[in-house]
Amino acid sequence: MGTEMPRLFFAAPFTQMLDEVTNLIAPDYREWLSDILRFLENLGFNVISSHRRERWGEGLLTPAAALDADIHAIEECDLLVAYLGDPPSPGVQLELGVALACRKRLILLTESGLNLPYLLNGIPDVGRGQIIRFRDTEDLLRLLKEALEGNPA
Asked: Exposure of 59 by Cβ count < 10 A (0-12 exposed, 13-18 middle, 19+ buried)?
C-alpha cells in the first residue's frame, strides 16, 4: 500500500486580486501562484487551492459556499501555507484563524520589509507556526523548501 501525500491548503489573496473588467485573476499573479502550487506538488504535497477550485475567478462561489469549502478543506489538511499579500488579505487572515483554531501547522509567507498585522506576529509562538520573509520568488521557494524538507506535516 502506498502512503497518502500530505494535504496542504494554500491560502493567498483572491477576490481582491480579481480584475474589475474580466472578474478573473490577473495573468501574472495567476502564473506566479501556479508556479508555487506546482513547486509544492513537486515536493510531494496534495495541494488544495481555492484559486483552482474556483477556476481563477471563472467559477467564483458565493461567500458562504467559499467559506464553508475553505473551512472544510482546512479541517482536512495537514498544514496550511499562506501568502498574506500587500495589503494583507482579510480572507487569508480568516483562513489563518481557522487553521490556528484547528491546531494545524502554519507557514506564513510575506515579503521582506512589510509589517504584519499585529496578531500575526504571534504565529511562531502559538501552535506550530512559522513566518517566512522573502525577497523574491527564488528566495521564497528556497526558504519554503527548507521549511518543509524533513517535516512535511
From this structure: exposed
Q: How far apart are CA 140 and CA 36, in angstroms?
A: 9
Whole-model pTM: value is 0.93
Residue with cell 489563518: 96
State how far Cα 129 lies from the chain centre.
13
Residue type, 19: D
- Residues in the chain with pLDDT values less than 50: 1, 152-153
Count of all residues that appear for the chain in the document: 153
113 sits in the region (left: phi over 0; alpha: psi -120 to 50; else beta) called: left
CA atoms within 13 A on the CB side of 95: 34
Are 108 and 131 a contacting pair, CB within 8 Å? yes
